[in-house]
Design goal:
Length: 322
């Protein structure tokens, strides 16, 4: 059985006044059906840019966009999203096959339109349903995320942060896509609401056989739902591993530092930090992009040659140590 999604050497660069930002620079990975993958890394590593690249919501100042984004679908067969026209993407892919939960739920909802108007419109436009049919589907979607039907008649500013996030999740699943991209779905929410949203996402994954790509900088959150972890640094994926392997034995020095910065409730350990900053993606370091901050950098090697990704004890890691 083919995987659900394959990325092959995907690049997406922004053009800015100072030069070209290499936000996504040669990213490749495979996502299987029913699998949840978390993309973790510091702010500025390219995680959200990768999410927008997959669903082809590209900014106007794109300087380069290349590579293959292969979606394997029972209805459409194998299609390359990178080569589809904007019209085909709107008609066949977005929200039907791949949907997205954006980072700030309040920004994703129009504050002057009732929830019903915002949920019904895509069903009428994309599926050709009548308004009453669309309202029924919207009501079912709200019920599936634990909200009452009367939320449809309310404005976003009348809802709590957690309720707004549930509305956005309901909008993402109501057309029954196979892949949902979650961009920081619990940011700006309190800890209890975060836990409730994560439990909801687990239930929806099991109920609708969904695949997830979870974009987050919260590694503890990723451990709750992810089947595998992808670590991004400076526009590149430096490690991909099944969750059980990653959390027991991360391979890449950057992955090790990320985990060492997470406090533990079960053991006493000194919290570490990563010295320095994420490099500029306009002029990234040559060789391994982590080498200026890496305690294990091999002089004359890491600073000159970019490491390939290799299989190491169940993980894929791009590091000259292996």
């Amino acid at each position: 059985m083919p995987p659900l999604l394959e990325l092959r050497n995907v690049k997406m660069y922004y053009g800015v006044t100072n030069g070209v930002v290499k936000a996504v620079d040669g990213v490749s990975f495979v996502l299987n059906k029913g699998e949840a993958m978390a993309l973790v890394g510091e702010s500025g590593s390219g995680k959200s840019s990768l999410a927008f690249t997959i669903i082809r919501l590209l900014p106007r100042n794109v300087a380069e966009f290349s590579g293959e984004i292969l979606l394997h679908d029972e209805e459409l067969g194998t299609v390359d999203l990178a080569k589809m026209s904007e019209e085909e993407l709107r008609r066949k892919i977005r929200w039907k096959k791949i949907s997205m939960v954006f980072q700030a739920s309040m920004n994703a909802l129009n504050p002057i339109l009732k929830v019903q108007d915002q949920m019904v419109e895509p069903l009428v436009l994309h599926l050709g349903l009548s308004k009453q049919e669309a309202i029924k589907i919207a009501e079912e979607a709200l019920l599936s995320v634990g909200l009452a039907k009367d939320v449809l008649t309310r404005y976003p500013f009348e809802l709590s942060g957690g309720m707004k996030q549930r509305v956005v999740i309901a909008m993402a699943i109501m057309m029954k896509p196979k892949l949902v991209i979650l961009d920081e779905p619990t940011s700006a929410l309190d800890v209890i609401t975060q836990a409730n949203i994560m439990n909801l996402l687990k239930e929806l994954k099991a109920k609708f056989d969904l695949s997830y790509i979870l974009i987050t900088h919260d590694i503890a959150l990723a451990s709750e739902i992810a089947d595998k972890i992808g670590v991004m640094y400076a526009g590149k994926i430096v490690e991909i591993a099944p969750s059980d392997i990653f959390f027991r034995k991360p391979k890449h020095p950057y992955s090790q530092k990320l985990l060492a910065a997470v406090p533990s409730l079960r053991e006493e350990k000194a919290i570490e930090y990563i010295p320095g900053d994420v490099p500029s993606l306009i002029n990234p370091p040559p060789g391994c992009r982590f080498h200026p901050r890496c305690p294990y950098a091999i002089k004359g090697k890491c600073e000159r040659e970019e490491p390939p990704r290799r299989q190491v004890e169940g993980s894929e890691v791009a590091c000259w140590l292996y």
